[in-house]
Amino acid sequence: MLKKSIGITHKILKHPKYDESLDCLDIRWSKLLTKLDFLPVPLATVEKKYVSTQLDALQLDGVILSGGDTPSMNLRNLNKIKITKKNKNNIFRDTYEFQLVIECLKRKIPIVGVCRGLQILNIIYGGSLIKVSGHANKSKHKITIDKKNKFFDLPFKVNSYHNYGISKETLSPELLPLAFDSEGNIEALQHQVEKVIGIMWHPEREKTVQKNDHKLFKKFFL
To answer: Which residues contact 16 (CB under 8 A, 6 or more apart)?
Structure first.
């Protein structure tokens, strides 16, 4: 029997042939979570006014903000951004995930941000992003674990799929760095008070999920 129900957000993709915008989730997330005795619960991207009802109905034990396109730098003022065909889906997802984080914090639901999800968390807590190069590829790189990280066992080598990162200067003052890349950019973080963490790599995209990634999710959600 699966012990915990973990909600996970989608990326939104435009169908190549039909006039459809699709909630999409890599099925490797299901393989990763079920191996940990967690039930993955895909979270439909709904209007912000329904997020509270969604969480009340699902009674989740945790939430994962999954990867995808880079979020808007101005999450608190999304209603002021001009909506176009090009940005419509991204703004919809940004609005949803912003409200999702707010409602999860109200309910003390633990949150893990993965890649884009980590970026979302940093912006919500008042940080910002920087443009980085050489990170949007499949090659792995080493990370340095912060000496103050006493709680999480993190991998020493991780994959990389992002064009924007977080420097020490653009990290939210409410968040603590857990790991860095060779340039000093943040690879993992946690909130100082709330049960919130973020990682820049994609554990689900590994052919064999690293043991420390399994430990990270299991320890955090249990």
So the answer is: none
